[in-house]
Write a structure and sequence with these properties.
This protein has a domain of 66 residues: OB fold (Dihydrolipoamide Acetyltransferase, E2P) (Beta Barrel). The two termini are 14 Å apart. The protein is built from 1 helix and 7 strands; from the N terminus they run E-E-E-E-E-H-E-E. It is elongated. The protein is mainly beta. The strands form 2 sheets. The chain has a 5-stranded antiparallel beta sheet.
Length: 98
């Protein structure tokens, strides 16, 4: 599927007409550069918010929210305004009818 901004999102779900994409925060991984892995979806964006939740951190990157461990956030140096790549597999992208 193609988003309004032209970004292509891969999903194993089938959809027709106007659909939205839902990705659970724990399905999203973060990196400084797009990793060479099995995830087909890599979206680069600025970190809009960082919210600590005990031993986890919720990080908003563009339209996506990732939930990663606090130690991963520290290792990556996650901070508001930083550019990161949010990645998720096609199996993690759920299509919903609008």
């Amino acid at each position: 599927m193609t988003l309004d901004d032209g970004t292509i999102v891969y999903s194993t779900d089938e959809g027709e007409g106007d659909v939205g994409v839902v990705v659970y925060p724990w399905e999203v991984s973060l990196a400084r550069q797009a990793p060479a892995d099995s995830a087909l979806n890599h979206l680069r964006g600025r970190v809009d918010s960082v919210v600590p939740l005990g031993n986890r951190v919720r990080v908003r990157v563009g339209a996506l929210t990732a939930e990663i461990t606090a130690s991963s956030a520290a290792r990556l140096g996650v901070a508001e305004g930083e550019l990161l790549v949010a990645s998720f597999k096609a199996t993690g992208a759920r299509l919903v009818n609008l």
